[in-house]
Amino acid sequence: MTDQVTPDYWDEACKYLTRRDRVMKRLIPQFGTACLQSRGDAFTTLARSIIGQQISVKAAQTVWDRFAALPRRMTPGNVLKLKVDDMQAAGLSARKIEYLVDLSLHFDSGAIHVDSWRGMQDEEIIAELIGIRGIGRWTAEMFLIFHLLRPNVLPLDDVGLISGISRNYFSGDPVSRSEAREVAAAWNPYCSVATWYIWRSLDPLPVAY
To answer: Which family, according to the similarity comment (predicted)?
Structure first.
């Protein structure tokens, strides 16, 4: 997947959500033809998500650009050959270097079954990914949405999703996870698509990982 890929279910999902949910009926037409897109390969996507943890988008991009310039090609084997000093000079903390090395080892050794993911359930893939240091459930769910383009992921740990549900469905009042889950019952089986539109309602610029 070198170029951007768009999910084939998007139009159908938008029609379904517009029929099922009053907020989606209002939100979806506001964003025209924009939709979720996947880019890059699995290893690069996860490496970027590790680098982006707990720093601003702008800072993450700067560090990523410096880090990506170190190996000739961004592959697990090449990352394992990098010197720690060079990675630190690119702006990476000792902990993130450990995470990137662990990620590279998982891919390089075949512990991660990338070729089998297409036939695996979401929860099976999440279980495999959170076995890598530095990857928690939220990162795994973002990977399912943005890289594998899975249609029905509901990332209840995502601050943007919860605040977007609060704003769009509860007039800004605080929302519990169970209330968020109740709202999302109408989105099934297209929770990823509805989540994307909730994010758009907070920030009109689409996110791509």
So the answer is: Belongs to the alkylbase DNA glycosidase AlkA family.
pLDDT average, residue stretch 77-106: 97
In whole angstroms, give the CA distance from residue 63 to residue 66.
5
**Under 8 Å between Cβ of 146 and 208:** yes
Which residues, 6 or more positions from 51, have their beta carbon under 8 angstroms from its beta carbon? 60, 63, 64, 67, 92, 96, 100
What's the fold here for domain 42-146?
Endonuclease III; domain 1 (1.10.340)
The one-letter amino acid at 19:
R
Q: What is the CA radius of gyration of the chain?
A: 18
Separation CA 30–CA 151 (nearest Å): 21
Q: What is the pLDDT of residues 12-51, one digit of tens each?
A: 999 999 999 999 999 999 998 888 888 778 999 999 989 9
